[in-house]
Design a protein that fits this description.
By secondary structure, this protein is an alpha+beta fold. It is built from three helices and five strands, in the order βαααββββ. It has a five-stranded antiparallel sheet with strand order 1-3-4-5-2, with helices on one face. A hairpin with a 4-residue loop joins β4 and β5. The longest helix is centred in the middle third of the chain and has 16 residues. The mean pLDDT is 95.
Amino acid sequence: MRTGDELPPLEIPITRTLIVAGAIASRDYQDVHHDPELARQKGSPDIFMNILTTNGLVGRYITDHFGPRAVLRKVAIRLGAPNYPGDTMVLTGTVEAIEDTTATVRIVGTNGIGNHVTGTVTFSMKDAE
């Protein structure tokens, strides 16, 4: 791993099941994450993914790439365009900094509307046991 290395993209289909399951798993019972009619009444065209699901997918992107020795230390993300059912989010990353066994990767997740998530993930590589 070197500064400037790009991670391969990860395409994640955004399904109703993923949105609702993520909201339930993170105990986010806001109606905009599971009830299309109430989401429309609040001005959204449909239900949309919550930030905790996005946070989990960003973490998964890092640990899938770097393996089980990667330990997340800091995830700093910002949401932009909502993830609606039927779209695909594509996560990409670039290694931004490396210090000893700790690295920071800049993350961007795009969908058909624009940038859904941007930010950085800092992780360390634990020693093999």
